[in-house]
Amino acid sequence: MRIGYACLTVAVEGTQIKTCTLKTATEERLLSLADENLRTLERMVDYNIANGIRLYRISSDIVPFGSSIAAALPWDALNRRRLDTLAQKIALSGMRVSMHPGQYTVLNSPDADVVRRAVEDLNYHARFLDALHLDATHKIILHVGGKYGDAAAALARFASVYRDLSSAVTRRLVLENDGDIYTIAEVLDLCGRIGAPAVYDNLHNAIHPADGTKSDDFWVSLCRGTWRPTDGAQKTHYSQQHPLKSRGAHSDTIAVDPFLDYCHRLSGELPDIMLEVKDKNRSAVKCGLCLLEANQRLLETEWGRYKYSVLERSPQEYQAIRELLKDKAGDNAVAFYRAVGRALAAPEDKGRAVNALEHVWGYVSEDATSAEARRYASLRDGYLRGDMRLRQAKSALYRLAVKYRQDYLLGSYYFTL
DNA sequence: TGACGTCAAGATCCG
DNA sequence: CGGATCTTGACGTCA
Question: Which class is A3-291 in CATH?
């Protein structure tokens, strides 16, 4: 099985997707953005390979306005070499990618123009995956759409539009339950009628249940039956409720223990799991190390990334983790992430935060100019006095890490936690 | 008409 | 001027 994340990569330099507004969109600008974003995508794929992540959702925004004004542009032909390189990296690493048009791509709308644009959008997504020479196991995940006061008619409209889609789209198309309109039972029923696989989303089902008496395992097992051999392994979405935000809002990070509980309650072969979470690749690496095979080297790398955030919050956990990792043979990923989680949950403490700042400053202090040193000291002291935020000192340090090419720091989570 | 959700561009404010 | 913080844009649905 595989564990993956969606679209964006945190704490990896040069992985920012760029776009523009309709106002400033010219053919030249769109083509140059597509070119730039494909380079960015390659850096994300490289990161995934280096970090053992073999499931990844490609952002729909790689080609800005790809389904409308850029649909007429030869972004694929112009980037043939880069796409081929990307295709090779994805194939050789056994990575499975997907795409997911958002809630505004609605195939069953009563408005014919909305449907036409939705079809164009699906065509764009298929064109992108086809440009990477990927087979039909690389999916496009879609929600069913609206009900418009008459679910039966809305479902019939979906089936009818679906019949007219090109096979380039339908061979990849997978339907997902959503958090307020179509339950997993309704999606399964529709999938049965049209012959498409179903993705089960646990959080959507939790807030919009098909049947409160049925377990996640029940629905995952039912969905498994919709995946044919040409579709590849079953795929699911997993997320956790943010404790403070609105119903259905994704958590900032995946809590390891509920995630492991969820997986252990599933019967049969584990499906591929796409995590939907704010901290993206950070959670994907974490869940992979906790659920899949032990990887001491990657766990040590993870410690390097979390180190200064842990030090900032809890010197006790910092020491405890150092002890824990001395056991090179032990499969201690779960214990490691529990300790990290406890540390990050600790309240901000100015003394500890400044201690961490000083450690990080140590990486760039020798290279920094005297003006940079003064700037850093004034941000640090301003934070101690209480008239500046910690974030300001941290982002100043981040800019110095970029300027003086401190690669170890650039991979750290310190600047984004 | 505005809320919804998500992200980056664009605008504006600050020192 | 750079950097921090705000508002806007892009999409469709629904109250």
Answer: alpha beta
